[in-house]
Sequence to fold (374 residues):
Amino acid sequence: MKTIDQLGKNELSGKKVLLRVDFNVPVVAGKIAETFRIKSAKETIDYLVANGAKATLVSHIEAIESFSPIVEQIGEILGQALTLVPLSELNSRGNLFNASPILLLDNIRQDKREIENDKEFARKLSGGFDFYINDAFAVCHRNHASVSAITEYLPSYAGFLIKKETENLSEALKAPVAGKIVVLGGAKISTKLPVIKNFLDKAEKILIGGAIANSFFKAKGIQIGASVVDDTVVDVSSPKIVLPENIVVTEDKTGKSGATSMPLGNIAPNQMIVDICPEFAEKFAEIIKGSEMVIWNGPMGLSEIERFAEGTKIVAQAVASASRSIIGGGDTIAAADKLGLLDKYGFVSTGGGAMLEFLAGNELAGLKALGYYN
Fold:
């Protein structure tokens, strides 16, 4: 896989670069609610500008239809003046470069050919550019036109972020088993189960919390009441897997009513599990603090509600104090950021699904297109 640091001023000066970034950020009341992914692209963008290149940034966003309401905020975060280019004006971007060295193409998924990995769309997208750089690790598991097909039409490189992501996540896979702890939470067992299976012989312990623990409880015949659970069949069992023994339950997931800590097995049909109890979270924390490396993806409960965030808080603080830590996933980052811990971890992955796919040992379409697996 060729990386951006193989291009210097001689190669980049005066050249036009198509740069795939991931600005798919949450937007609340017209404001960007989480800036981490945008900040993560800054190193590559600054490098291109410093070496005399002009860049068009390409991203999708799900929270809003267009980048128009937040383009100024993005520019402020990056420290760059951005000009937004509608998809309908794709062919006129050459003139726009005269006004600004950094352009932002509007939401690429406004054109359905993006998610279809349409080669003609990718060819059109590549027109007038000298290089393609992918720095959007979080979409590398997507076989989309601006991620995969585009590499057939331009000399293609990985940006600094993708280089860091692959190096750190590879380390997570290859590090010695002894002292390696995996902590998994969140809601979707279907995305976490392949990771669990892949780490059974790669980690010393796998600590399970959040709604995915409910799937394990259900498989064991333990009552989970009205708790969140998906239909994925849990077909794995190992002494390495550590499940909560004490939980926090409620009849009201808004957090306005009371919550109770209790042992497993006594939950009523109208109650739901919303956290691991603080005392058991401390047991997780002791395991984590004694580790050589900890990999964390997914909160321990409904952590966006303050009353149900204690288990996640205890685990987040323990991970921050570990010798070597790697975390990722949107909800995980949001929880850590809320606690002011984001800069305390060894590496924070911008990927949610992409991180899990990588850790499951699967090939990512975007990395394959860059030649990572060659």
Q: What stands out?
A: The first strand starts at residue 16 and ends at 20. The chain has a mean pLDDT of 95. Residues 4-162 form a domain with the Rossmann fold fold (CATH 3.40.50.1260). Residues 160-174 form the longest helix (15 residues).
